[in-house]
Structure formats: C-alpha cells, structure tokens
C-alpha cells in the first residue's frame, strides 16, 4: 500500500534540509598535516603518549592496509576517496588530553550545550526529571571530557577515553583490543587500527551492574578531517552495562570520512546493551556533502549465557556502511539487533547485521525497519549462520522496508546458512505488517482507516524504540516519528 | 573488474576447453556462430569458472566443486524412454540430433542444429547474463536441441515432453520455445541418465510467452549420482501471459538450476514451484531472478528443499521491481528440511525494489522435522521411520497438488518424489 500522508509529512520533517546540528564552531585546532604515512601514525601515537607496543600495532595495521582493496560489494556509490587528502589528527589547541570540566575551553562546552549534551555533573544532578548519564565527549580526534568518572570508579567501573585507558590500564587494553575485530578484518577496520585517535573504553568488573547509562557523543567539527574512533567495552562475568552513542557533524560541502571500530566483549552471564542514534550530516538535498560512515561494529558473546544487544536508529550520513554483529560463541548466548534506518535526499544506506552461531543453544533475533524517501537507497544486508556444532541455534529475523516516493529504492539481501539440523531459522519480510484482523478491529470501532494504520504501526515501531534507553527513546522518536506500514518486505 | 590475465586452469576447465578443441571442426554453425563459440570459450579460458568471489556463485564455487568433466562420447546417448505422463508427445534429442517423429499438430519444431548451421541461432547464443558461466559453456559446446513454435491459440490434450537421455559423456542442448498468443500447453523438460557413469550436461531453455498464453513448464531432473547438471531457463512474459514453472531436482551430484525471467507485459503472472531432493554428497543450487518490468504483474515462488546425508542445498532468489512497476505483487518463500547434522543449506532471498506501491515479501525457514508433529504420529503407533517419511513427503507433496487440474501429471510427479524418497530416506 502507498505511504499515508502522515508518514510522508513526518519524513519531510527530518529531511536533509532540516538538519539541526549543522553549525560549525571556530576553535583553534592543532592538526596533523594532510596525508597518511608512517610518520603521521608515529605523530598520532606520540600525541597520545602511547606505549611502544601500541605504535607497533598501528604500524602493522597500516602496512597491512596498504595491501588491501576498498570493498565494492555494498550497494553504495561514491567517488573515490583520496585517503591522502584528509587530516588524520585534529584536536582543539587548548586540549592536551581530557581534563576536569573547569579546564575545558568554554567554547567547546558551548558546542555541547547547543547539542543538548549534559556535561556539567552538578546541572545534571540538579535536574529533577533527568536521570544520570555519564558522558564521554569526543571532539574530532580527542576526548574532551568524561563525566561521572569518580562515581563510576566507586562501583569499580572504568569509563574513560581509550587513549587514557592505554596509559592507565595498558594490560586490559592489550588483552582485549583487536580480539573481536582483528587488525586485518576489513579495509576500513584496518585503516582505523592504524590511525584511530580516540574513543571510549569501558570495563565493568565481575558481578557489577553499571550504576548509570554510559554514553559517548562524537562530534566531527574540523574541515577535511576524518574521525576514526575506537570503542572497546568489556563486561566481565555477570556484569551489565548499557551504552549509548550519539553523533553529529557540521554542514559542509565536502564529504567527511568516519571509520570507527567498536568491539564488545561479554564474558559469562554478562550483558551489554549498545544503542546508537546516528545523526551525522547527511548532505544537502542535491547530495552535496555529508559524512561517509564506514563502521565495523562487532560483539563477541565469549562467555556462557552472555547477551549482546544492538539497537540503532540511523538517520544521518550520506553513506552508511555498517553491520553491527554478534559472534555467539558461548553456549546459551544471545544476540539481538534492532534497527530503524531512515534514508532521505541522496542518502545511501547499506546496513544490517550478522549473527554467527557457534555455541550450543544460542539464539538471536533481528528486527530491522528501513524507510527510504527522496532519491535514497536503503539496503538491509544480513547474515545468519549456524556452525556445524551450534546445536539448537535459533534465529528469528524480520525485516521490513517502506518506500516513500517512486525515486528511491529498498533492498533486502539476507544470507541464511545452516550447517546443523537442530538449527531453526526463520526469516520473514512480510508485505504488510498490519494484520487484517487488527485493522478490522479498529475500523469496526469507528476509527478511520488512516488513523487505524497509524495506531497499529506506531505500536509496531515501538518494538525497536522500546529497546532504547528511555532518554534516547524520546530523542529517537522525535527524530523518526514515523508510522511504518511496512509496504515492502 | 578486468581480470584478463591468464589463470592456471583447473582439470575441469582444461577438459571443457579441450572438449571444444577436439570437436572444433565438427561443431555445427555458420561463420557467425563459430566465431561466437570461439569468443565464449576464450572468455571461459581467460576468466575461468566462477568462484565464490563472484556474488551470484557465492555458494556454488564451480571452480572448486567441478573436479572433472567426462570426455564427450557420441555413443553415450540412449534411446528415448517411456514418457513420464502416459500419452504425452515425446520430442527427444540424441547426441545433438533432434528426433521429430511425433510432433503434434499446432507445433512447428525443427532441429536446433539446423539453426546453428544457418546462423539463425547466433543472436540467442550471444545473449549472456551477468557472470553467465552456463551460457558460455553451453554456447561454446552446444550441438543440438529443438526450436519449437507453438501456434497462436493452440491447445493440447496431452503434455509435450522434451527428453534428453544419455548414459555418460557430455550433452549440451538448447531449446528456444515460443508460445503464440492465447496458446495453452504443458511442457515437460526431462533430463534422464540411464547409468551411474558420470555425465556432464548443460542445457538452456529460452521460453517466450505471447499475449495471454497459459503455460505449465515442468523440469524433471533425474541425472545419475555422479552427474553434473548445469541448467538454465530464460523466460519472458507478454501481457496477461501466465507461466507456471515447476522444477524437481531428484538427481545429480553437482546441480545448478538457473531461472532468469522478466514480466514484460501488464497482467503477466509467474508461478515458480521447486522441489529439491538432496542426498549423498550432492550439491544442488537453484538460482532465480525475476524482473517485474511493468506495472500490474504478479509472481509467487515456493521452493522446498529436503536435505539428507552430507548434501548441500543452495537457494538464491532475487525479485527486482523496476521503477514505475507499481502494483507489483510478489511473494517468495524457501523452506528447508535439514535432516542431517552433516548437511547444510544456504539461502539468499533478495528483494530489490524501486517502486513504492507494491506488495513484496519473502520468507525463509530452515529446520528439522517438527517434533510435535512427529510425536503426534508416534503416539498413534506409527513407526518413526514411516512417520518421518510421511512428514517429509507431505512437506513436498503439498506443492505438487497445486497442479491438480492434471491428475496424470500430479501422479507422475509424486511418483518421481516417492521413488527418490524410498531410495534415500
């Protein structure tokens, strides 16, 4: 069925021309010269005061990267990226590493105020309705400030920028870095391994339930810079953590590159919940500018009965190339993926997930909703596989897409691979998610059809929205506010 | 990507190129056909057989899976066998030579060899899909087949059976078949092997339906346990044409059955039903693409796979809805019973959609026999082996029954299925 008017209006509201976070901040920056070579990597490493092994690791990745080819299998088209025309390091001059809030340049704080990101602990505490969220604010290549560090420390939780962690907890970083997304994983992940500048590090010790939501807010500001952050989250036995990620960038005519790597590790009985509201600048309505978002996100359910859940709301970026995945290694582990991807204007989205069932009695669930409008292309690409020994692997996948207008495209490319007869895989992408029964029920009670559809569909989107932590759910709902009637499978 | 540098040829690639070399003076064709053959074989030689790096061959790495190719042997062809549905008109191809003894009224049939010789086949041979290894192998080596034209408005009391029977060696056939406007027919394309010796078969059917034609096209593939079968069906549907394709794969060691089609006229309707029975160490791949090119077309696909032993099943299905092809209604399902822990199944049901007012959906399931169903039967005193056989049979028989208008046909197809299940289950 065609999209209802309400949906069309709501999508228009989040059209590319309505990008609210496109302002630019003039801050004196300390930049590495453009280009990529071993000297730049040495420079990044020394700026970060990194240990020697880290520099070696980066150089190894860089040499590997030189031999790799840019992948071309995704359904995205873009002009060739000149990797030597990018600044790989840019930090506000006033920053030489994260400090206490009082020392941070007020200009920078204003940026976050404008973005609505609470950084002042007192203010957050004073606020009545707002619950506590610890924030790591990353501005171009550096972490500006991390809030609530002390309080988290009391609970034993380590939450800091990854460069800081490398200095303060080198053993932990060394033990886990690159164990989920190896250096040689793919073109962009390898590039990231060589040049990543900052990102967040989280370690939740045994049996600890992290007392508050953790969050990182990424902002690309400087012209011609790439942002390469690396996030590493470890939940030790029986631990629980919920982590949120947000991102924005100024409106610029040229494209900016963002190639992040996120690694999650859940040990026995641990649970990690990772939520993203991705709102990078998508380019203008003629397809000019916007962020190229090439991200490798992967979670490793390493322990028994561990659980990793990805929730993403994707509205930004000119190009999204992103497949948050779960390796279900531990027996009884569980992976979840909930996604809403909205594309408009000239945006191109190729996103999805991988659920790799290796252990026994593992289960996974994929719920993906794609909405394409304008002249955009929206692709779901997902893989579900059961290894020979993955007894009783169970997967349920549902992916629906909706097209608004006749110039956009929606595509579904699922790969289903079962090597075990006890595996039970179900993949469905049904035509209309609105059951006739439900619709009839509403109509019979005098609710007009359009309102009935909106009602049912809103309840349906909640499946994904409700997976988000409350604070984010509100933001996401505002961002999307779309009724999905799932007209295309 | 341009990968023209010479590759190291595998034994199978060498055998195919050599087969061409050995027959070069003997293969039928005029100048245009012969030079086309040369190009196709040259492309095969330089690019090699497709590997898993080529997306459409991802699960069937032909270069690795095709270990050897038996030599061509003109004496390998067997006599025609009994028609699968009694009373059918049988047209057969033997060692490239068409047997046109029983051509029913309303059909114009001629040997495809003649079309190669007079060059009229050149245009069809030149049509290749993307990464079309089957089109290349077949185009290079094809010796014969049948060119069939069904008259406008023709109707037939009995099915038309196209038979390719052989005991070993190679067979490369082509069947351009056009159905006139308003015609109505059932065609059975049958590939049978009479011995356990290895044979290598490539076959391309090019099926075009005129306005309002109503056709049932059945493929019964009963190759031997050591055989390689590379089949391709291309189809094009004009306005209001209705095509029901039914494929049964009940044989072969390495099977790739491609179906590529296009709904070109409004009101066109395609139904695809596939039953793949896999056992032993066989590998069966069904790859399907359909383009809904104009508004108001419909399609429905159901593939059922039953996989025993160490067999590997593959289904790739892609429905493409072109821009402006509004009101398309397309449904695709692939259901698999995986009956052994050493078996495996890979499915990739794709949708590629550029129109907004459409109804498209797909579903895929992979599972073992439902234990509650099995328990129900065991509780009623049915022995486990029998209960399993009944459930497997029910799983596939369901879609055969859709052909209920032709009882003899349903019976014949059920016979193929139960014969296979008796042997393997």
From TrEMBL, chain A:
User: What GO biological process terms does the UniProt entry carry, in alphabetical order?
Assistant: iron-sulfur cluster assembly
Boundaries of each SUF system FeS cluster assembly SufBD core domain copy?
218-460
| Cross-referenced Pfam families | SUFBD_core (PF01458), SufBD_N (PF19295)
Q: Which InterPro entries match?
A: Fe-S_cluster_assembly_SufBD, SUF_FeS_clus_asmbl_SufB, SUF_FeS_clus_asmbl_SufBD_core, SUF_FeS_clus_asmbl_SufBD_sf, SufBD_N
Source organism's superkingdom? Bacteria
Span of the secretion signal? none
Family per similarity comment: Belongs to the iron-sulfur cluster assembly SufBD family.
Name of the protein described by the UniProt record: Fe-S cluster assembly protein SufB
What is the source species? Sinorhizobium saheli
From TrEMBL, chain B:
- A Pfam family recorded for this sequence: SUFBD_core
Instruction: Cite a single GO BP annotation.
Output: iron-sulfur cluster assembly
Spell out where the chain crosses the membrane.
none
Q: Is Cell division one of the keywords?
A: no
Nucleotide-binding found in the keyword field: yes
Q: Where is the SUF system FeS cluster assembly SufBD core domain?
A: 169-395
UniProt-listed SUPFAM superfamilies? Stabilizer of iron transporter SufD (SSF101960)
User: Which key words are in the record?
Assistant: ATP-binding, Nucleotide-binding
Identify a single GO molecular function assigned to this protein.
ATP binding
Q: What protein name does the entry list?
A: ABC transporter ATP-binding protein
State the organism of origin. Answer: Sinorhizobium saheli
């Amino acid at each position: 069925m065609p999209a209802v008017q309400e949906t069309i209006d709501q999508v228009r509201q989040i059209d590319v021309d309505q990008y609210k976070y496109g302002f630019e901040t003039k801050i004196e920056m300390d930049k590495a010269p453009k280009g990529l070579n071993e000297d730049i990597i040495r420079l990044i490493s020394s700026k970060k005061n990194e240990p020697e092994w880290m520099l070696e690791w980066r150089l190894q990745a860089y040499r590997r990267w030189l031999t790799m080819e840019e992948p071309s299998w995704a359904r995205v088209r873009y002009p060739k990226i000149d990797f030597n025309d990018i600044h790989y390091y840019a930090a506000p001059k006033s920053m030489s590493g994260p400090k206490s809030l009082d020392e941070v340049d007020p200009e920078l704080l204003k940026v976050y105020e404008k973005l609505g990101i609470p950084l002042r602990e007192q203010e957050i505490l004073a606020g009545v309705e707002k619950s506590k969220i610890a924030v790591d604010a990353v501005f171009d290549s550096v972490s500006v400030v991390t809030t609530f560090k002390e309080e988290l420390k009391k609970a034993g939780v380590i939450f800091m920028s990854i460069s800081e962690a490398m200095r303060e907890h080198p053993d932990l970083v060394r033990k886990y870095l690159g164990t989920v997304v190896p250096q040689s994983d793919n073109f962009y992940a390898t590039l990231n391994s060589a040049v990543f500048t900052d990102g967040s590090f989280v370690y939740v010790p045994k049996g600890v339930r992290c007392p508050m939501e953790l969050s990182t807010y990424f902002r690309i500001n400087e012209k011609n810079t790439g942002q390469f952050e690396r996030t590493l989250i470890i939940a030790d036995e029986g631990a629980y953590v919920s982590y949120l990620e947000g991102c924005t960038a100024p409106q610029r005519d040229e494209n900016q590159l963002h190639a992040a790597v996120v690694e999650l590790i859940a040990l026995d009985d641990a649970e990690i919940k990772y939520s993203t509201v991705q709102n990078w600048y998508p380019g203008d309505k003629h397809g000019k500018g916007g962020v190229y978002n090439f991200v490798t996100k992967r979670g490793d359910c390493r322990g028994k009965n561990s659980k990793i859940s990805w929730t993403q709301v994707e509205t930004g970026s000119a190009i999204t190339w992103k497949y948050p995945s779960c390796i279900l290694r531990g027996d009884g582990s569980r992976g979840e993926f909930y996604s809403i991807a909205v594309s408009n204007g000239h945006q191109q989205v190729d996103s999805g997930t991988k659920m790799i069932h290796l252990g026994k009695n593992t289960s996974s669930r994929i719920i993906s909703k794609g909405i394409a409008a304008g002249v955009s292309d929206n692709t779901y690409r997902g893989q579900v596989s059961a290894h020979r020994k993955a007894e009783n692997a169970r997967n349920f996948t549902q992916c629906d897409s909706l097209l608004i207008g006749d110039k956009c495209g929606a595509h579904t490319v699922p790969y289903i691979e079962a090597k075990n007869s006890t595996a039970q895989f179900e993949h469905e992408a049904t035509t209309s998610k609105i059951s006739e029964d439900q619709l009839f029920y509403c109509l019979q009670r005098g609710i007009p059809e359009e309102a009935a559809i909106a009602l049912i569909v809103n309840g349906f989107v909640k499946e994904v929205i409700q997976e988000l932590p409350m604070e984010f759910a509100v933001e996401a709902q505002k961002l999307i506010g779309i009724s999905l009637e799932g007209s295309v499978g | 990507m341009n990968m023209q540098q010479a590759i190291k040829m595998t034994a199978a690639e060498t055998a195919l190129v050599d087969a061409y070399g050995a027959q070069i003076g003997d293969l039928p064709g005029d100048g245009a056909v012969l030079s086309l053959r040369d190009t196709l074989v040259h492309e095969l030689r330089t690019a090699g057989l497709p590997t898993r790096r080529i997306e459409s061959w991802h699960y069937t790495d032909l270069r690795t899976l095709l270990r050897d190719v038996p030599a061509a042997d003109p004496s390998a062809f067997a006599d025609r066998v009994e028609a699968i549905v009694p009373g059918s008109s049988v047209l057969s191809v033997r060692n490239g030579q068409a047997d046109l003894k029983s051509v029913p009224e309303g059909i114009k049939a001629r040997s495809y060899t003649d079309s190669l010789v007079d060059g009229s086949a050149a245009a069809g041979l030149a049509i290749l899909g993307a990464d079309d290894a089957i089109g290349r192998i077949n185009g290079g080596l094809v010796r014969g087949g049948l060119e069939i034209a069904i008259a406008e408005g023709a109707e037939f009391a009995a099915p038309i059976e196209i038979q390719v029977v052989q005991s070993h060696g190679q067979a490369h056939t082509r069947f351009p078949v056009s159905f006139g406007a308003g015609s109505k027919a059932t065609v059975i394309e049958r590939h049978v092997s009479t011995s356990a010796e290895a044979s290598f078969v490539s076959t391309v059917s090019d099926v075009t339906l005129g306005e309002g034609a109503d056709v049932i096209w059945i493929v019964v593939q009963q190759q031997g346990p050591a055989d390689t079968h590379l089949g391709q069906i291309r189809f094009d549907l004009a306005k209001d044409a209705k095509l029901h394709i039914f494929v049964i794969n009940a044989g072969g060691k390495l099977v790739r059955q491609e179906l590529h089609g296009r709904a070109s006229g409004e009101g066109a309707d395609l139904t695809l039903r596939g039953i793949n029975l896999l056992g032993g160490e066989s590998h069966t791949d069904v790859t399907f693409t359909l383009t809904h090119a104009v508004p108001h077309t419909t399609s429905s696909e159901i593939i059922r796979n039953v996989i025993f032993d160490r067999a590997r099943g593959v289904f790739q299905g892609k429905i493409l809805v072109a821009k402006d092809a509004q009101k398309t209604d397309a449904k695709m399902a692939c259901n698999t019973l995986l009956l052994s822990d050493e078996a495996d199944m890979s499915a990739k049901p794709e949708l590629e959609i550029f129109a907004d007012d459409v109804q498209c959906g797909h579903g895929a399931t992979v599972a073992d026999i439902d234990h509650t169903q099995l328990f129900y039967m065991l509780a009623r005193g049915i022995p486990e082996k029998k209960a399993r056989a009944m459930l497997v049979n029910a799983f596939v028989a369901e879609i055969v029954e859709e052909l209920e208008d032709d009882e003899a046909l349903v019976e014949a197809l059920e016979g193929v299925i139960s014969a296979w299940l008796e042997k393997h289950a």
